Amino acid sequence: MAIVCAQGLGKTYRVADKQPGLAGTLRHFVNRRERAIEAVRDVSFSIEPGEFVGFLGANGAGKTTTLKMLTGLIHPTSGTVEVAGCQPQRRQADFLGQITLVMGQKQQLIWDLPPLDSLRVNAAVYGIPPEESRRRIAELAEMLELGDELRRPVRKLSLGQRMKAELLAALLHRPAVLFLDEPTLGLDVNAQARVRSFLADYNRRFGATVLLTSHYMADITALCPRVLLIHEGRLFYDGGLETLTQRLAPCREVRLELHAPMGADAFASYGEVESIEGREVRLLIPRERLTEQVGRLLADHAVVDLSISDPPIEDIIGRLFHQGALA
Amino acid sequence: MGRYLSTLRIFWIASLTAELEYKANFVIELVATAGNLVGSIFVLSLFYGRGQSLGGWSWEGALVVLGVYTLLEGVTSTLLQPNLSTIVAHVRTGSLDFVLLKPIDSQFWLSARTFSPWGLPGIALGAGLIGYAAWRAGASPAPLTLLAAALMLVASLLILYSLWFVLAASSIWFVKIWNATEVLRSVLVAGRFPVSAFPAGLRAFFTFVVPVAFLTTVPAEAILGRASGPWLLAGGAVAAGSLVVSRWFWQFALRFYTSASS
Predict the structure, then answer these.
(1) Does position A212 have pLDDT exceeding 90, yes or no?
(2) Is the per-residue pLDDT at A269 higher than 70?
(3) B53: burial class by Cβ within 10 Å (0-12, 13-18, 19+)?
(4) More confidently predicted of B187 and A297
(5) Beta bridge mates, B54
(6) SS3 of A273, please?
(7) How many other CB atoms are there within 10 angstroms of residue A326's CB atom?
(8) Could you tell me which of A219, A230, A215, A109 has the C-alpha nearest to residue A172?
(9) What is the DSSP string of B17-76?
(10) Can you give the pLDDT at residue B138?
């Protein structure tokens, strides 16, 4: 039984179509025109209990919109969604008690009070008895390596400490499904690593299902065996991280050092010539013909050195994020 | 229900802890409220200076109205202002998402989350003035009068709350709504005087459009034991109606938030 299930999910926003400047504003005031923007279209996937899934996509690809539909904050325009056996948009107490949403750029802790006071509020709201809530706070605080920080006003905590306290507040009711939107945003490398190991630990210990978005590929590669890649509102890929690399980068890069410089024509038959600089040649060769072509290269030319590399996943997806285009 | 009460207790303890960091505020607020009250009594006394009266109300009766107004002001500073002003901030920063994700009524959370003790001097002074003026006016503390007075005070609070909440909730469309609630606050200043003191046109406005009459005049009548059945019924009906409208309006506003937020 899947715990998260989306079927043909779509969301269309209506936005005002307005020219900049005063004239544009006046024209818009008289003749209001709206444009429909399809933020998400026909997205289907399902997640089994206990899975740790990465959710990738460039800015504006539709990640946050999808997360908001999964948590019931916005209503889908089309399709159906079911999380923990409930329809999120109905926002029943039963459903809300089973999920949590952590947003890296928003916070729920009370700014002027120590996190413990916010935790007390959350315990009351979720109906957790004081004894039980004390036990859970102690357990989570230990996992998060939080101690005295819980007694200091939130405004005096560092960003990393605050994020850990946010996680504690979001997990106090022990949700079965975690939606994490950029939980490591802005953290330094050490703090990122600590949050990462906590999430892995939490997922193991409580069997919680996690859907994580992050711009830090290290988060994804360390935590998520499976990824969903969303591009321009559509689900572009759903599967293992390994296969994604192969699919996004069907070629491998072969670097040659030749005995003497040669022209580009000499290499056109082996694969795509990326560059030739003096005696250094870089070629892109499709994976399935790699062995054969490398064999030919070695036989045909006087090769001093040869190396084969896979472009790192960070680069592939980073390029995708920045260019916003898929090959 | 039990969960809501225990949540309310935690809410208020948390906000009291935060506010009590600033103890001097309490003294300042007490002095400010008392000063305000003395000023209002002085203005009122000018009307009664030469044996005149205000809209047929005796000096003591008018003082009861002023007492109810001061009490309402106190409740406003204690609960309405601190809670409902944060709705705007929640919408602007997007932290409304966190409220909506809690398994508790979002209107309850937004309306009762904070408790600011700075309005308490106003509540105490208002109640004191009501008691003193009602005694001087010779109002009898019969159980039925007290019951009617209590009901009308509650009704008046509910009306004020609903008006305020609806205005604050409209920040979902117009994020910068705070000015509108300031306008509301200044219109409510009219509640310092019995509604019959105003010209007929304004009187109708304060009864039917912005129900200022039900905020102070009707409760004062009830306290003085002069309230007629129809007015009591009307007060109750307007209060129940406003509350229902505020709940409906919130659900309506949320539909927009949840279908258009980013």
Answers:
(1) yes
(2) yes
(3) middle
(4) A297
(5) B57
(6) strand
(7) 13
(8) A109
(9) HHHTT-THHHHHHHHHHHHHHHHHHHHHHHHTTTS--BTTB-HHHHHHHHHHHHHHHHHI
(10) 85
CA distance B18 to chain A (A): 6
Model pTM score:
0.80
Facing residue for A121 by CB, picked from B10, B94, B260: B10
When pLDDT is cut at 50, 70 and 90, the band that residue B262 belongs to is: very low
Band of pLDDT at residue A312, cut at 50, 70 and 90: low
Token pair listed for B200: 């007929």
CA distances from A258 to A74, A264, A270, A272, A282 (A): 60, 13, 15, 17, 11
Q: Which residue has the higher pLDDT, A51 or A319?
A: A51
Q: How many cross-chain Cβ pairs, A to B, lie less than 8 Å apart?
A: 77
What's residue A71's pLDDT? 94
| Chain A contact set for B6 (CB, 8 A) | 124
* DSSP assignments along B75-100, one per residue: HIIIIIHHHHHHHHHHHHHTTHHHHH
Helices A159-171 and A130-144, interaxial angle, to 10°? 140
Q: Is residue A170 within 8 Å of A183, Cβ to Cβ?
A: no
For the segment A147-175, the average pLDDT, to the nearest whole number, is 93
In single-letter form, the type of residue at position B182 comes to: E
Poorest-pLDDT segment among A34-43, A243-252, B144-153: A243-252
Amino acid present at A208: A
Q: Convert the pLDDT of each residue in A178-196 to its tens digit.
A: 999 999 988 888 889 999 9
Report chain A's mean pLDDT, rounded to a whole number: 87
Higher pLDDT, A136 or A289: A136
Which of B17, B97, B102 is nearest residue A125 as measured by Cβ atoms? B102
Q: Whose CA is closest to A167, among A221, A119, A230?
A: A119
Q: Could A106 and B93 be called an inter-chain contact, meaning their C-beta atoms sit closer than 8 Å?
A: yes
Q: Work out the average pLDDT over A97-110.
A: 90
List of chain A residues whose C-beta atoms are within 8 Å of the C-beta of residue B97: 68, 73, 101, 103, 106
Q: In A, which residues are within 8 Å of B11 by CB distance?
A: 121, 124
Beta-carbon neighbour count of residue A316 at 10 Å?
18
Q: What is the pLDDT of residues B19-55, one digit of tens each?
A: 777 777 778 878 888 888 888 888 888 878 777 777 7
B261: which chain A residues are within 8 Å (Cβ-Cβ)?
68, 73-74
CA A161 to chain centre: 22
Cβ-proximal residues to B211 (8 Å cutoff; 6+ apart), any chain: B159, B163, B238, B242
Side-chain half-sphere exposure of B40, counting CA atoms within 13 A: 24
Helix H segments across chain A? Answer: 21-30, 63-70, 93-96, 115-125, 130-144, 159-171, 189-206, 217-223, 241-248, 290-300, 313-323
- Asked if the Cβ–Cβ distance from B101 to A73 is below 8 Å, we say yes
CB atoms closer than 10 angstroms to residue A193? 15
